[in-house]
Write a structure and sequence with these properties.
Layout: E1 5-11, E2 17-22, H1 25-33, H2 42-50, E3 55-61, H3 63-77, E4 89-90, E5 93-94, H4 96-108, H5 110-123, H6 130-140, H7 147-163
Antiparallel strand pairs: 1-2, 1-3, 4-5
Length: 167
């Protein structure tokens, strides 16, 4: 028999909520408050500000059912709106405002920028096979590109030509 999943709600003193689901309620509460939790997380910041709220289990069931209920509960309680709660998304889909906040927080993070540069460095100088280049071309062919994208691509090609990467 499959292990049960729990749909839960965290209600903070400012009357805002967070709704989520888990297999291990105690472990999930520990992860919400642990230092390893994403420091830009809205729930993490609320816990830092108000302290750990009590977890209220709303429902128990199979994963698919609970995941569906989570999205419905988030919409019903409007916890995806900053006025009512701390959910950044409705059942797995980030809101536009949350995406902007995440992007801004990551751009400020020196560690994130360093990791991206290190990962980018790993792939430099590795030539792609002709088959792989054909797949990349097929993927991008026909997709509309903005003027800004075209300008960036042109600058990158000119830079590569200057370095002697082509021909």
């Amino acid at each position: 028999m499959a292990k049960p999943y729990y749909l839960y709600s965290l209600t903070f003193p400012n009357r805002k909520r967070y709704i989520g689901y888990t297999m291990r309620p105690r472990g999930r509460m520990q992860s919400h408050k642990s230092p390893g939790c994403n420091p830009t997380s809205l729930v993490r910041r609320a816990i830092s500000k108000f302290g750990l709220p009590k977890m209220q289990v709303l429902c128990v069931g199979r994963r698919k059912y609970i995941a569906t209920l989570e999205a419905k509960a988030i919409e019903a309680f409007k916890t995806y709106l900053p006025k009512y709660g701390y959910n950044g998304m409705i059942g797995g889909v980030h809101t536009q405002a949350t995406r902007a906040n995440i992007k801004a927080a990551l751009a400020k993070s020196k560690a994130f920028v360093a990791v991206r540069q290190r990962i980018g460095g790993w792939n430099k100088g590795i030539p792609h096979s002709a088959e792989h280049r054909a797949k990349i071309g097929a993927y991008h062919r026909g997709k509309p590109k903005s003027a800004e994208q075209r300008a960036k691509m042109s600058a990158a090609r000119k830079k590569a030509w200057a370095k002697g990467k082509y021909g």
